[in-house]
Specification:
Layout lengths: L1 E4 L4 H11 L6 E3 L5 E3 L2 H15 L4 E4 L4 E2 L1 H8 L3 H9 L14 E2 H27 L13
Antiparallel strand pairs: 1-4, 2-3, 5-6
Helix pairs in contact: 1-2, 3-4
């Protein structure tokens, strides 16, 4: 199951996002008046989604075993659809093709994004070390991503 939510009234969510980031106990009140506290895991999901929507970002919520279209997967990774297709064709991300369209498992995208972040962090550390050892001229270096 995957749910995509596009922010329509981002300004209305700013107050909600601010109230979720405080250290207060957050609870739901049922129609019968019963108060139910939110577990920390659910509060984290709600906080993250509300913050993103308040910032005008689209939120995609899905289970690890759900499948995304190539456009949804590209949006999740923050790349263009052709770039995602290149990753798929190079075998960097596995996918299924139940018919004429490719489907990518959300768990595979999460793993790819985490691996990519680790590689980028390692390169940043290597660059930082090179600059400290004066083996790299950092005068004109500008990070683009």
């Amino acid at each position: 199951m995957t749910l995509t939510v596009v922010p329509l009234h981002a300004s209305d969510l700013a107050d909600v996002a601010d109230s979720l980031t405080t250290n207060h106990v957050v609870a739901l009140v049922t129609p019968e008046g019963k108060t139910v506290g939110l577990p920390a895991e659910l509060l984290e999901v709600l906080n993250t989604a509300t913050q993103a929507l308040a910032d005008g970002q689209t939120v995609v919520l899905g289970t690890q075993d759900s499948y995304l279209t190539t456009q949804e997967a590209a949006d999740y990774l923050g790349v263009s659809r052709p770039t995602l297709i290149r990753f798929l064709d190079l075998g960097q991300i596995s996918y299924e093709r139940p018919n004429s369209h490719r489907r990518i498992k959300l768990a595979d995208l999460v793993r790819f994004r985490e691996d990519r972040a680790r590689r980028r962090a390692a390169l940043d550390e290597l660059l930082h070390t090179s600059v400290e050892l004066e083996q790299y001229d950092s005068g004109e270096f500008v990070r683009t991503r």
